[in-house]
């Protein structure tokens, strides 16, 4: 069993990216863990503040710890956390990593919040990985008509800001804005700014995280990984697959939940499998 820090080092060495998949319930958890086990790759289960409230923070931490006792390299990330209070609660509950999201605050406010979380995390357990964000990429993981308001080429992360942000906060991972957005844009997701990813990676010297992976072309993913992305978040795509699968399952006359919900798990697994293969170069 490796720690998340060791797995990140391994990803850097292998030039691969670790898949991060958000879940809202134990079925999502099952789909992620069984697929990673099948492919024999490490994986991160993510829970945003609302997903945490639904599945239960202590409950999902316990699920991950149990899977880990069975020798699986699975980790739990408190995704997009907007306040110090919520960050402290997640750290106290035993998460492996936490995303501090101050991306729509001012640069100084973002640094201040992120710094506070880093210092709290370090005081609890130096193995906890803290991720910071700069550059706004939208907030909701759903299918959207157009690019979220406030996302444009001008809001992409500047390498100098990234360097200062990392130096000031002491974070372990950085999530920049490089053409990625949360959600699947009906008119097509923007192209990733691969050159910018490379510049930021060089400027900060820590692994980079790509949020809003749904809707990005395979070739863009490969180039992004080559340029320094070591962790990729997928949410919207598995939400869509889950819902469509359950809708299909409900069409049968089955009344046992493990029958009509199974189709949802199956559909999520298909998406997760393809993404994990791509991210791990399999
Ligand atoms: Zn995200």
UniProtKB/TrEMBL annotation:
Report residues binding Zn(2+) 2: 101, 133
> Could you give a single Gene Ontology term from the biological process aspect?
carbohydrate metabolic process
The protein's required cofactor(s) are namely: Zn(2+)
| Residues binding Zn(2+) 1 | 80, 182, 211
Active site residues according to the UniProt entry? 79 (proton donor)
Q: Which Pfam families match?
A: F_bP_aldolase
Q: How is the cofactor bound?
A: Binds 2 Zn(2+) ions per subunit. One is catalytic and the other provides a structural contribution.
Give the molecular function GO annotations. aldehyde-lyase activity; zinc ion binding
Q: Which UniProt keywords apply?
A: Metal-binding, Zinc
Q: Which NCBIfam families match?
A: cbbA
What this protein is called in its record is Tagatose-bisphosphate aldolase
């Amino acid at each position: 069993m490796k720690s998340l820090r060791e797995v990140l080092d391994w990803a850097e060495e292998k030039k691969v990216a670790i898949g991060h998949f958000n879940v809202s319930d134990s079925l999502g958890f099952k789909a992620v863990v069984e697929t990673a086990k099948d492919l024999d790759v490490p994986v991160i289960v993510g829970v945003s503040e609302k997903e945490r409230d639904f599945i239960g923070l202590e409950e999902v931490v316990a699920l991950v710890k149990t899977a880990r006792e069975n020798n699986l390299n699975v980790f739990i990330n408190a995704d997009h956390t907007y306040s110090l209070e919520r960050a402290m609660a997640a750290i106290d509950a035993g998460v492996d990593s936490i995303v501090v999201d101050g991306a729509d605050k001012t640069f100084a406010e973002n640094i201040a919040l992120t710094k506070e979380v880093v210092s709290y995390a370090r005081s609890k357990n130096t193995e906890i990985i803290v991720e910071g964000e700069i550059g706004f990429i939208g907030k909701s993981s759903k299918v959207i008509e157009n690019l979220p308001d406030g996302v444009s080429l001008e809001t992409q992360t500047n390498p100098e800001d990234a360097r200062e942000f990392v130096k000031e906060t002491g974070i372990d991972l950085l999530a920049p804005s490089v053409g990625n957005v949360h959600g699947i844009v009906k008119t097509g997701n923007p192209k990733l700014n691969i050159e910018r990813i490379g510049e930021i990676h060089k400027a900060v010297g820590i692994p980079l995280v790509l949020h809003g992976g749904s809707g990005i072309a395979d070739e863009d993913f490969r180039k992004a990984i080559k340029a320094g992305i070591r962790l990729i978040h997928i949410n919207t795509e598995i939400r869509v697959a889950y819902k469509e699968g359950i809708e299909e399952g409900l069409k049968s006359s089955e009344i046992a939940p493990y029958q009509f919900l199974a189709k949802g798990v199956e559909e999520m697994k298909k998406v997760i499998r393809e993404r994990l293969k791509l991210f791990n170069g399999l």
